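We recall that each integer encodes one residue's backbone shape. We quote one record:
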Amino acid sequence: MPGTLTSKRYKVDDAVGAIDLCFEKGWTDGLPVVPPTEPAVRAMLDAARLAPDAQIAYIRDRAMAVTAEKVAINAVMAGCKPEYLPVVITAVEAACTDEFNIHGLLATTYFSSPVMIVNGPIAAAIGMNSGINVLGQGNRANATIGRALQLVVRNVGGGRPGGVDRATLGNPGKFTFCFAEDETGSPWEPLHVERGLTPDASAVTLFAGDGVRGMVDQLSRDPESLARSLAACLRAVPHPKMALGFDVIVVVSPEHGRVFREGGWSKSRLRDELLALLQLDGDDVIRGAGGIAEGLPEGLAGATVPKFRDDGLLLVHAGGGAGLFSAIIGGWINGPGGSQPVTREVRP
């Protein structure tokens, strides 16, 4: 697209010097980045058909516009291919909404950071991984798209540890946490359809999540047993005596998904069963119960308390075809001052 790139230029001797400059300027996440040369940045913008000064989002808490040029620069640095940029752009748009509340997410001392789930035709078109090792390393699109969002957060939004980012411990997802849903093998409708988009749409869903908790059940062969296993593990998010304030994603693997498919359970039925199993006895979860000071207010004694709000439990199908494991990704606080999952369509 026509338009002048306005970012400051730096003269370096070679690629190694450029990488070292990025370290010196604090533009990296601790790993080397790809030098954002003008041709590379322009190739990014051309792929998304965006002018450099096009406003992608506005960070209200910092009174700062996020331009296409800045997003493209950070996508190059992250190692993205130009065809990934529309997904990165959509993720930045979603992150800067009031609902997602990226500033609050950064400023909290909690673990969480953006978790990105990609749905629709674009995931396959750009070669994203939805299968084996889906939450791990090894796929360029998954790794670099998630990293690009994190670099925008760092370099444009000021989200550096000790600055805006006040996390006590953080989590490895602050490098990158991005994957595609396995829609082809899924027993259910995909996440973006459940959240209001058409099956042929491409979409990004952002969730304010922490690390991955493994869930193991290699013996359940009926959905009732497997749902009870899942519910038992979900009770610990983020503490067995906390409720309602935290959302969660369950990444259901193909082998666990097969149990639900063969049992005839829809996604809505599984969610309803989990929510029913996760009705907590207030006497067990109030402060001091079980000799544990942490817990819900004493006024909830005698009450029944839902572990999660009705729309606070997201189900996604992904992973390798072997292994009776699923994954739990706990969330940051929801409601006012917290973060809501946000789904946005990727523009062609």
Observations:
- The first helix runs from residue 15 to 25.
- The mean pLDDT is 96.
